[in-house]
Amino acid sequence: MAMNNEDNRLPCGAVVRDEHDRLVVDEAGRLVISRSALDRAGIGPADDVLCEFGPDGLRLTADRLRKVYVEPTTRCNLDCAVCVRRGWQEPEGDMPLERYARLLDGLPPAGPDRLTLAFSGFGEPLVHPFCLQMMRDARARQIRVELITNGLLLDAGAARALVEIGVAQVTVSVDGGDAAAHGRTRGNGFHGAVRAVHALLEARLHTRRRLALGVAAVATRSNATSLPSLLEFATDLRLDFVSISNLVPHTDEMSHETLWERAAWASVFRAPSWRPRLQMGRFDASEATRPLAEAVWGRGLTYPVPSLDEAAWRNRCRFAHDGMCAVSWDGRVTPCLSLLHSHAEHINSQARSVHAYVVGHIDERPLSAIWRGPSFREFRQRARAFDFPPCFHCGGCPFTETNDEDCYRNPAPVCGECLWAQGIVLCP
User: Helix (H, G, I), strand (E, B), or coil: what is residue 356?
Assistant: First the structure.
């Protein structure tokens, strides 16, 4: 809902705070927020304000663009077995610098490092001949920059350049704890990815600029047993993070590599349905606690166990809640990475056609205007409400052959089978 700057009232049925941020309620039952509290929350006069109810009570945030996944190119120097290219018919291309300049010019004002450009998409960003320059241009505008890369083009010189540019975070894709496991997923490139990690570690030793560095893996049946070695690798090098996501199967063959069949089924059940509900304090991970950990794991069927995580990821679109979108190399703006390109998925033993959903084009309108446009706002409202059928539990039907319609008669795109919204697939 849009904020009224004259009296700072929000018709949310409750009411907030004076200059000391104490909760109050006015006689009309409207939410009243002092200007100072709004300023501290970063909520401006033109912002839509999101009112969300959770375990900690009412949370107010601005429906503001905070992160843009930019796809510099759809070209790649690898041909991975798990790539979306196995399930699409899309042309390859690079984003022209003129289009990228329009993207930057159309971003909303956000203040230093309060808006992030994540160079990612469905190609290797560093294949773009001007990728480093694109990052420099973003940093010149005080925009925070992240990079997701397979690392093969990230030598010592490129690593120093990323540090000098001021890139805030680099994620190197390492799909396994050894060359054999990585090779089964990506064909090759394990040693190149490891060299990239070492080059970045060396480069950031000689600067005061902060660069977060981590690795990301896609877990499959073929590489799962090697992933503990990846954790050891990250621990030994004191990397900042490890992200282990699940596989999006784009072919029938890939569907036999997934590790989330029960997890998808369990995601449709609410936390109270898990009996008994388990509450646990923190404890050491050691040989002494191994029997307890194995018992929790075995009885939960999935990990994390739904009775432990309060289904925090169930039916939650991170893109809609956290202010994110994606821009393709050819300038199309989409609500999320999954809708960036039309592609095939194989879920519940069924082939599924996911059609791209475009809310605007940066050659035609500034991204800030597209973000505030009625079609994009309406989609974010639908995604946050997530009133979609429990498709994983049903196991597939004619409606789930595409993302065009569902049995609740929601308009396209429908998200009942979204792996991201169930916390099965993670956005880097």
Answer: coil
